[in-house]
Amino acid sequence: MPVRYPRPLRPGDCVGITSPSSGVAKELRPRLDVAVRDVEARGYEVVVGRCMDGAGHLSAPAADRAGELMSMLTDPGIRAVVPPWGGETAIDLLPLLDWDRLRDAEPTWLVGFSDMSTLMTPLTLLTGTATVHGNNLMDTPYRVPEGLLSWLDIVAAPQGHRYTQTPPDRYRSTGWDDFRAQPEVREYPLDTPGRWTRLDADGDVEAEGRLIGGCIETLCNLTGTAYLDVFAFARAESPQGLLVHVEASGDDAFTICRNLHGMRLAGFFDTANAVLVGRTSAPDNDSLTQHQAVLDALGPLNVPIIADVECGHVPPYLPLVNGAHGRVVHTAIRSELTQTLH
Fold it and tell me: Which long-range contacts (CB under 8 A, 24 or more apart) does 29-36 make?
């Protein structure tokens, strides 16, 4: 099945807000309101769903979350769906979603990262619908550094659009803002210099392929299931190979190493022309760093491995479109990723 790109958003279109995983605590609602107003400022209407409770780690029972997500993704009046953020156990929705109906419906943009990878990556693989691995709703008010884009820019781009993002060579190393105390915060303190890092060898990298990937801690649990058949997707849509992106949320280096080994053994990286690895603040171990964990697990692929890409849990964010054609260039003086929506 060909990759399907949702129609670009236009002023007056509707954006749906729901929490397929974790909701928003009452004391964080002011930040949610700020983010909603920013989406509305782009000219869009916003509908906030019922599955938003933040008292626990899930916003609602699984059936309710699945039903609301299905409703938004198949409602022709809703053109994009974005969660406030990720969470922990969105995996419980997978058997409850009507994948045939999603495949037949007019495609809708689904946006997010972290636990949203559990849903977005299968959506692309099983239905061919492109999805945006990028900043979530609660991060939307932050000013986007020069060279990068917001998910709001991408969902408004026409099919066939080509755009290049370049890293700002600085990132945030100081944790997270307190949205309770500062619901209006809009500036990231990009306080630490940092470029992309090639792990497998020295030398320049230039590689192409359709983009696919997501959060290691969530996707590793889908290997060997029908929800993560990357090989079939590559064979049908990208026989020339893929650009696979992965990122660690918070697990230590030993755990990430094991998870990546398992994903490689299950064939997740078999068709990769290169692997992009998100910058992480997840802890090292005494005898194994996060970079070493990646190289230990993925070195046998014998493809370029580029780490410290802005596609993970460390701001800023470089949104990636699962399903888009990507071209990555990394040299001593230049790093860039070009994506084409075709």
Answer: 30/179, 30/183, 31/138, 31/141, 31/179, 31/183, 32/84, 32/137, 32/138, 33/183, 34/141, 34/183, 34/184, 35/84, 35/137, 35/138, 35/140, 35/141, 36/137
Torsional sign, CA 201, 206, 209, 214: positive
Q: How far apart are CA 146 and CA 166, in angstroms?
A: 8
| CA–CA distance, 167 with 208 (Å, rounded to integer) | 18
Question: Confidence band (pLDDT; 50, 70, 90) for 313?
Answer: very high
- In DSSP terms, which residues pair with 288 in a beta bridge? 285
Q: What is the pLDDT of residues 54-77, one digit of tens each?
A: 999 999 999 999 999 999 999 999
Cα–Cα distance between 34 and 299 in angstroms, integer?
43
> CA dist 312 to 100, 171, 231, 247, 280, Å?
30, 11, 23, 5, 7
Averaged over 41-66, what is the pLDDT? 98
Please tell me the predicted confidence (pLDDT) of residue 175.
86
Q: How far is CA 56 from CA 21, 68, 231, in A?
A: 10, 18, 36
Determine how many CB atoms are found less than 10 A away from the CB of residue 327: 16
Rounded-to-integer distance, Cα 165 and Cα 63, Å:
38
**Strand, coil or helix: what is 153?**
helix
> What does pTM read for this prediction?
0.97
The H or E element containing residue 132 is strand 131-133
| Per-residue b or e along 106-144, where b marks 16 or more CB atoms closer than 10 Å to that residue's CB | ebbbbbbbbbbbbbbbbbbbbbbbbbbbbbbbbbbbbeb
pLDDT at 173 over 90: yes
Structure tokens, 31:
């930040």
